[in-house]
Design a protein that fits this description.
Strand 7 and strand 8 form a beta hairpin. The longest helix has 19 residues. The chain is built from five helices and eight strands. It is elongated and about 70 Å long. The strands form two sheets. It has a six-stranded mixed sheet. Strands 1-2 form a two-stranded parallel sheet. It has two domains: 46 residues, no CATH class; 118 residues, Nuclear Transport Factor 2, Chain: A (Roll), CATH 3.10.450.
Length: 176
């Protein structure tokens, strides 16, 4: 008998349930047996449950935040997750982040240049690129550098640290 293990990185907000995992296992086993022209009892496909790829989880979190899907973003955070922003401002709730950001900008989005993962427990995910968005008065901004560091353990974000040049940009007369 041949055993095949497949790891599927499902949407972290919608993990594979047991019924879906079983249907996929059956369908993949049947397809593999047919393509190999071998009897079904000689091949078993096992779909292992596992934590999502840390980089995918982080990108999903950031996309949910940009889309204002707060419930979706919250589902990706571990209990006790802390988020530290420029100036040493540390928060432990998405509601706190939203209230803190409201007078600073209308919205902000990230253009990624790199996403790197250091495996481990916790896994560390680094994201870098530039920010674009609008100041509270509706004036657009873009090209502001950022660097985010995330720690991911057991399929959830446990820590986020944020660095960016927003304050420097504002100090030079670039915003608000």
């Amino acid at each position: 008998m041949t055993a095949i293990t497949a790891r599927l990185d499902a949407d972290p907000g919608r993990p594979l349930d047991a019924a879906l995992r079983k249907r996929l296992q059956t369908a993949l086993t049947e397809a593999l047996c047919e393509s190999l022209d071998t009897p079904p009892h000689t091949v078993t496909v096992v779909i292992a449950a596992g934590d999502p790829d840390p980089a995918i989880l982080v990108r999903s979190f950031l996309a949910a935040m940009e889309a204002r899907d707060i419930d979706g973003a919250q589902a990706l955070l571990a209990p006790g997750c802390t988020m530290t922003f420029p100036g040493g401002v540390t928060m432990d709730s998405l509601a706190g982040i939203i209230a803190w950001a409201r007078p600073r900008y209308r919205f902000v989005r990230k253009d990624f240049e790199r996403v790197d993962t250091l495996p481990g427990d916790p896994a560390v995910v680094w994201c870098s690129g530039t920010l674009h968005g609008e100041w509270p008065d509706g004036t657009a901004f873009s090209g502001i550098r950022f660097l985010d560091r995330f720690e991911v353990s057991a399929g959830r974000i446990t820590r986020q640290e944020v660095w960016n040049d927003l304050a420097e940009f504002i100090a030079k007369g670039g915003g608000e």
